[in-house]
Amino acid sequence: MIVPFGARLAAAMDASGPLCVGIDPHQSLLEAWGLPDDASGVRSFALRVLEAVGGRVAAVKPQAAFFERHGSAGVAVLEEVVAAGRDTGTLVIVDAKRGDIGSTMGAYADAFLRDGSPLAGDALTISPYLGFGSLDPAIDLALSSGRGLFVLCLTSNKEGHEVQHARTDDGVTVAARVAARAGALNEGVEPLGSIGLVVGATIGDAARRTGVDLAAVNGPLLAPGVGAQGGGARELAQVFGAARRQVLASSSRGVLAAGPDVASLRAAARRASDEAAAALS
Fold first, then answer.
1. 191 upstream amide cis, omega within 30 of 0
2. Which residues form a coiled coil (predicted)?
């Protein structure tokens, strides 16, 4: 029997705390760690992060773009990282933000969500801005394979409001419509549905202003921006309110800046997890 992603994530958060560590081998971080800006440097970086936090946090989140910028060799490293993360028993969220229509969306779903695909982790980030219905191939495959999705909803980039806060003819914001569609897919599921949202940790009261009921989503809320980007206890409480139990706080630079020493990375992740747990309790 397949255990759905939402149930596996809830158990992982109970066991290890509500933290997801981003694996972002950015050029500046590679340089700071004394690694070359090529696929070999990316591999050393990513596997070092997994050595430090694998089995100790709820999830890791490799950012696909930082692997893809090195071509086929970088994609091969991403495949290795997905497998290595799985071997540590840590949930792997592939942060690829894919979104398209028809057979193309189906192909993306096949690449990142199909059993046996080397790029298929436990969950995938996706974009709904070609219409929520365009995500159906990914939704169908994720749910049938026990995987999860995190749908972009309220992001912290300064341009996001242009689309996410816009209102349709009936006065409902785009973000509220996205959240409602995700909630409908998670209705009645316990302890958490598998269709989550991406909601920035530094968006202030945007959920209230856009009419987004985060608690009603009944799915996980991936919250980038915790730590170095300014998302602390006060920000998390303001953004998520009654939905705090659903939040998986994501920290990348806040943890990665402690590298390359494994013990230092591990300590930074432990601090970040404890701080997130305290803020979300």
1. yes
2. none
User: In whole angstroms, how far apart are CA 226 and each of 44, 137, 175, 192?
Assistant: 25, 31, 21, 22
Residue 144 CB contacts under 8 Å (≥ 6 apart), including other chains: none
CA 38 from chain centre, in angstroms, equals: 24
Q: Is the pTM of this model over 0.70?
A: yes
Fold of the domain spanning 5-280: TIM Barrel (3.20.20)
Measured CA to CA, the distance from residue 170 to residue 108 in angstroms comes to: 32
Q: Where are the domains of the chain?
A: 5-280
Q: How confident is the model at residue 225 (pLDDT cuts 50, 70, 90)?
A: confident
**Known active-site residue 158:** no
**Residue 15 near residue 57 (C-beta atoms within 8 A):** no
Catalytic member of 56, 69, 97, 209: 97
Instruction: Name, in order, each residue with C-beta under 8 angstroms of 107's C-beta and a sequence gap of 6 or more.
Output: none
* CA gap 47, 106 in Å, rounded: 30
| pLDDT grade for 33, boundaries at 50, 70 and 90 | very high
